[in-house]
Amino acid sequence: MKLGAVTRGVFTAFLALVVGAIVLELTGRDAVEVYRLLVEQSLLSPGALADTLLNATPLIFTGVATAIAFRAGVFNVGVEGSMYLGAFAAAWVGFTMTEWPPGLLIPAAFLAAGVIGALWAVLPGVARAYYGVDEVVSTLLLNYVATSFTGYLVSYPFLAPGAANAMSPLIAPGARLTRIAPPSQLNLSFVIALAVAVAAAVLIYRTTAGFALRAAGSNPRFAQSAGIDVRATIVMAMVVSGFIGGLGGAGQILGVNYRFIQGFSPGYGFDGITVALLVRNDPLGAILGALFFGALRNGGATIQLFADIPIDLIHVLQAAIILFVTVEPRVTGWFARWRQRPTKLSGTPLPVRE
Amino acid sequence: MLANALHPPKLAMKNVSKRFGAVQALCGVDLEVARGEIHALVGENGAGKTTLMRILCGLERADTGTVELDGRPVHIPDPEAAHRLGIGMVHQRFKLIPSLTVAENVILGSEPHRRGVLDRRAAYDQVIRLCEEHHLEVDPGARVGDLSIGLQQRVEILRLLYRKAQVLIFDEPTAVLTPQETEQLFEVLRALKEQGATIIYISHKLWEVLQISDRVTVLRRGVVQRALPTSEADAAVLTRLMVGQDVAPVTGEVSLPAPQGEPVLALHDVWATDDRGLPALRGVSLTVAAGEIVGVAGVEGNGQRELAEVLVGTRPLVRGSVTLLKREISRVPTWRRRLMGLGVIPEDRDREGVSLDFSLADNAIATRIRSHPFSRRGFLSRRAATMFCRRLIDEFNVVAPGPGTLARSLSGGNLQKFIAGRELSFRPTVLVAAHPTRGVDVGATRFLHERLLSLRNQGSGILLISGDLDEIFALSDRIAVIFRGSIAGVLNRHEATRDRVGALMLGRRGEDSVA
């Protein structure tokens, strides 16, 4: 089943690339050449590969966070907000508890980020589960609150001394995550992201809580009649989703930026939605989905410089992916029928086994 | 009556065979249906009825065989082709969009338009005309999601008529209907037949087949046993053809006298509303003792659904109390009730009995995920789930490839066996069984009845809600009749007769009922 999700994801990504190629050709560019450059600039040298993993890291966090909520049937589009608040919490721990040893400081920063991100998701979760408030609307709107509120925090109370732009002070050196492959900024948060994805997969597929989550998402009425507290499960899914979103924010601050900068996320939370959709909400699949987008972002940035291909190509691919995921049931239906076509048109039927 | 060269039958399927993996679903099947005929296709679960019809609708392709319409061979590679040929099917699971109106659902896929713009007015007019022509009363402006199952089925029929279907296939259409709705459906079928429609009626409710059809074709294990005029058939003949042996109908022999133990389930003055907020239960009081089966008889729609939901805990009480094993549970959540030993065979198997997108193994343990041996310290044991599911499949004769199969791919009857098996396997102290054998074939019904009786003999209390009086009489120690949300009367088994129960079901007092 999990393998199926990945295969379908690969198939969808392939279709999206075909659409991208058509768009490229229509705008008078050599699609093959552009894709060759993309691959070269994102995978074919150690430096490029490291940068791809770097770009994939936040998307693993947000992809997994989104996937967990979607699995429970909650359309949480507020991972971005959890990420902003988590990032600020991690930064605050990093520039405030400067005396703590790294072994305490880093876990504390991640924990603070996760908890704040989770708390942020409680409100829309409870509102949805117990009062029927549409979570798409509430989480989407709360994103603005989260980005603006953290922006305010680093513009006034926590503005770095002497800084002109809205950013917090630098975090203590002990709070910074080890860089794995200099000169790339790739750092330990990539490994943490992988661990989070694995933990999420275990949660979903191997635990009773994960079972409840999947049951609530796949058929809430049955889940309730089977004895699962669907409302509590929805809140739990939101909390876990927000927690992981918060961790993603911490990863960016402690691993890349070393301080909270207003607008540090170019929309990781939203890219996470595409990642989750692409891999049908499978946490391990989200790693691959994030790598795919990480490669696009990384390679895309380079070819924008060299080949004058606007990075908007990535948005075309994202849109195509969402489209294909939406229409997929129909497409796989055709495919199944094509595979089922009769191979033998004549012959005597076999006797029935008694 | 039989077709000849000058008057070919409306539909002829010849020598149709189909294999699924190791299973030969159909083997050289012939089917002939005349114009304006209601042709019943009967057989047990897995006999191949649905597969044959799916081939006719272009949803499956046959390995061998041909289809002829009006004597001309036709090729049906996909559902679109079936539509063009005027073949349409009313499925067991309706294929409607709940948020759209009746008219919108009817026209969906072939909308009337003026220069590419949907002509809403024409759509409504056409649907209204269609309703009138065929005496199918339904409000074209109503939202489909708000309609009863019976009315939704009408919308499905309208959809087919709108697309000019001449061959209409009904796949166990009464499985989801109340008795009144069934009667109304029969009227509709007769009217359609008068107007020259050709109808194929899949069912295993023999009395229905005998009542409505002109001819019957009996399938068993993918082979046609016989095709005969209904006038030459009776229930015994059909049963023998279906199961391949003489089966005594399930008779009302309760094997042990009721031990009359302690009450394990008690309702006192229970009031509850239905989905629309109208009172559905009005002061129901009822007890079930250990080692007793209490049958709840009644015309469907008199509060049975709400009664079951109140007991499961998915519908709140307005007033009154429910006591399970001496504990007041009206505010106790479902999961705790289940831990206390409550089992439930729900009425709506697709929506409440399983998750269609889950594997059978997952569905098998869904009601017990927090119990040994299915989980330990919050972690699930896949092995335990798989083993338990295998046992369930074997013991209850569920036709399914294995525990990894998605519930969606099972036929309705097999799903019912699976759900009933799951609930029975946990040996609940109290079982609420709503229509436990609905859609299940004769052999499996008998098996499930035996299991229900043996659960009772082991000391469990069972509340049996059923629309099938035969079932109620076959199993119940006491029979409670529900009418308009209250218990019209409770009869002991020996004093219950069909007349008395029937009178109570219609809201008349038992005494003056002999009619």
What secondary-structure arrangement, pairings included, does this model have?
The complex is a heterodimer of chains A (354) and B (515).
Chain A lengths: L1 H25 L4 H13 L2 H26 L7 H18 L5 H30 L3 H21 L33 H18 L1 H11 L1 H6 L4 H28 L10 H11 L4 H25 L4 H29 L14
Helix pairs in contact in A: 1-2, 1-12, 1-13, 2-3, 2-12, 3-7, 3-10, 3-11, 3-12, 4-5, 4-6, 4-10, 4-11, 5-10, 7-8, 7-10, 7-12, 8-10, 11-12, 11-13
Chain B lengths: L10 E10 L2 E11 L4 E5 L6 H8 L7 E6 L2 E3 L4 H6 L2 E4 L11 H6 L5 E2 L2 E2 L1 H14 L15 H14 L4 E5 L7 H16 L3 E6 L2 H7 L2 E6 L2 E7 L5 H9 L19 E11 L5 E11 L2 E6 L6 H9 L6 E6 L2 E2 L5 H6 L2 E4 L3 H5 L6 H6 L9 E2 L2 E2 L1 H14 L16 H14 L4 E5 L7 H16 L3 E5 L3 H7 L2 E6 L2 E7 L5 H8 L10
Parallel strand pairs in B: 3-10, 3-11, 6-9, 9-10, 15-22, 15-23, 18-21, 21-22
Antiparallel strand pairs in B: 1-2, 1-4, 4-5, 7-8, 11-12, 13-14, 13-16, 16-17, 19-20, 23-24
Write a brief caption for the model.
The complex is a heterodimer of chains A (354) and B (515). Chain A is mainly alpha-helical and 354 residues long.
Give structural notes:
Chain A is mostly helical and 354 residues long. Chain A has one domain: ABC transporter involved in vitamin B12 uptake, BtuC, CATH 1.10.3470. Chain A is built from 13 helices and no strands. The longest helix of chain A is centred in the N-terminal third of the chain and has 30 residues, at 102-131. With 515 residues, chain B is an alpha/beta fold. The longest helix of chain B has 16 residues, at 179-194. In chain B, helix 14 (412-425) packs parallel to helix 15. Chain B is 32% helix and 26% strand. The two termini of chain B are 39 Å apart. In chain B, strands 6-9-10-3-11-12 form a 6-stranded mixed β-sheet, sandwiched between helices. Chain B folds into 2 domains: 11-243, P-loop containing nucleotide triphosphate hydrolases (Rossmann fold); 263-513, P-loop containing nucleotide triphosphate hydrolases (Rossmann fold). The chains are: A mainly alpha (354), B alpha/beta (515). Chains A and B meet through helix 8 and helix 9 of A and strand 1, strand 2, helix 10, helix 11 and strand 20 of B.
